[in-house]
Prior knowledge:
Elements: E1 7-11, H1 16-27, E2 31-36, H2 39-51, E3 56-60, H3 66-80, E4 85-88, H4 103-131, E5 134-139, H5 143-146, H6 152-172, E6 177-184, H7 190-193, H8 197-204, H9 215-226, E7 237-240
Helix pairs in contact: 1-2, 1-9, 3-4, 4-6
Amino acid sequence: MRLKEKVALITGAGQGIGREIALSFAREGADLAICDINLEQAGQTKKEVEALGRTALDLKVDVTNYAEVEEGVNKILDKFKRIDILVNNAGITKDSLILRLSEADWDAVLNVNLKGAFNTIKAVSRVMLKQRSGKIINIASIIGIIGNPGQANYAASKAGIIALTKTTAKELASRNINVNAVAPGFIQTAMTEKLPEELKAKMLSNIPLGRFGTVQDVAKTCIYLASEDSSYITGQTIVVDGGMVML
Length: 247
C-alpha cells in the first residue's frame, strides 16, 4: 500500500493506460479523481476503483480548456481536500505525413497532448505548492525521443512533454514536488491492436526483450514515481520500452 491515504488525479483515465494506472493506484491505497473527455468511460473506471475499496470521483474534463480544468480541480478539492499526485495521461493521435498533415490535426494533437498537460500542471501545482508536497507524472512517449514518420504532431507534443517536465521539475523542486515523465514504447492497447500485423512484427524485431509492453508495465513505473521510493528523482524521463531505445 505505497500510496495509502494519497489522492491522485489522472487524466484520460477512462480507458487504456490511464485506466490501468487508476486501478493500480487504487490497489496501492490511493483515492482517485478520474478525469476524461468521455464521462461514461470515466464512470466505468470509477466503479472498478470503488470495487477495490477506494473512493473515486469521475469528472468530464476537456484538458484543452483551462477554465474546465480549474473547475475540475476545485471539485476534487471539495471532495478530497487535497491532491497528492497528478498523472497527465490524456492524449490523442492524428497521424499523417507532414506534407499532408493539416493545420487542424497539428493543432488538435498539440492542444490535447501538450497544452492539456500545461493546463493541469498549472492548476494542480497551485495546490501542491500550498501543501509543500506532490508528485507529477507526465506520460510522454519514445516517439518524442526518436521521432517517427507520419507522427510529426505526436512526436512534437511528446518531446514538448519531456521539456515541460524538466522545466517544471526545476521550478517546483524547492517545495518538495517531484516532476517526472514516463516514455512508453510499443504498449498493447486498443489503439495499437488496430495496426497492421506486418508493422507490429517489424516493431517487435526491434525490441531486445522480445515482447510488447503491457499497460501494467507502465502503471508499475508510475506507482514507483508516485511513491516515496522515488523521493530523490525529479526531472527525469523513464523509458518503458523493452530496450527499444537505449539512451
